[in-house]
Specification:
2 domains
Length: about 260
């Protein structure tokens, strides 16, 4: 899976690399430009990842690779662009004093890339791959980013709880999600008018939950493709997709494929 992410990033930077190679005959400059393009894209991926992870429940663990894959698939399928391009478009669409957070992020990314490029030229050393520590340092320089991330976490995590709670608080037939169950009191008594194991389609409350609908699709797709996935893993993936959907709404993005 890690190789899949690297291949996606390589594909995104390939065209940029080729265009720079046509613009200059200086081999050293071409190498630096190529490396900095890859560095900037990886840095942008990690920025998006930090924003998405800010929306996830703190009890969701070990989903780093799942988040990487979800972001890269979303960028590839919906925008035919790059993570850096996504951030730039967000900045341009939200060009107002109240929503300049993405403008500040882009500025920090550009400044970081310029500093890394200049260092590489001076020392003649190759540019190292961007790391999560680079992103933490970068985001620390973005004014109000911590408050922005905290607000996303509170609002989106509460939306997910509200979305799922109406199902698992009413039905003993609904899937059990340990992370959500910690936050609410589940009602164990089923509706006596519905026989156990049967589905009352007219009053099927699982249709009220976008998250549970998404979980069902993920489980079905996994079974059809021969790659079965557990209910808990499907819930984690659905939660990540929901967070990406909320980022699209926030940045006024228009994906080709709606997450539903």
């Amino acid at each position: 899976m890690g190789n899949d992410i690297k291949n996606l990033l390589d594909d995104i930077t390939k065209d940029v690399d080729a265009s720079h190679a046509n613009q200059t005959s200086d081999v050293e400059n071409v190498a630096v430009t190529t490396d900095i393009g890859s560095f900037r894209e990886k840095l942008s991926l990690y920025v998006l990842k930090d924003i998405i992870c800010a929306m996830l429940d703190e009890n969701i663990d070990d989903v780093d690779e799942m988040v990487d894959n979800a972001i890269m698939k979303h960028i590839r399928d919906n925008y035919d662009g790059s993570c850096y391009g996504y951030l730039c478009h967000a900045r341009d669409r939200l060009a107002s004093p109240e929503m300049n957070i993405f403008g500040n992020i882009i500025q920090e990314i550009n400044e970081k890339c310029n500093a890394v490029s200049e260092m590489s030229c001076r020392t003649k050393n190759p540019i190292q791959e961007a790391s999560t520590s680079d992103v933490k340092e970068l985001l620390n320089g973005v004014e109000n980013y911590e408050e922005f991330a905290d607000k996303l976490k509170k609002e989106v995590s509460q939306q997910v709880v509200d979305d799922v709670v109406k199902v698992i608080s009413k039905s003993s037939e609904a899937p059990v999600f340990e992370d959500i169950n910690k936050k609410i009191k589940v009602v164990d008594k089923p509706d006596p008018s519905v026989e156990p194991g049967s589905v009352d389609e007219e009053n099927d409350i699982t249709t009220e939950s976008a998250i549970l609908n998404r979980v069902g699709r993920i489980v079905s797709e996994g079974a059809i493709s021969g790659e079965p996935i557990s209910i808990q893993e499907a819930y984690d993936k659905a939660y990540i997709d929901y967070a990406i959907h909320n980022l699209d709404l926030l940045t006024k993005a228009c994906p080709k494929i709606k997450i539903r």
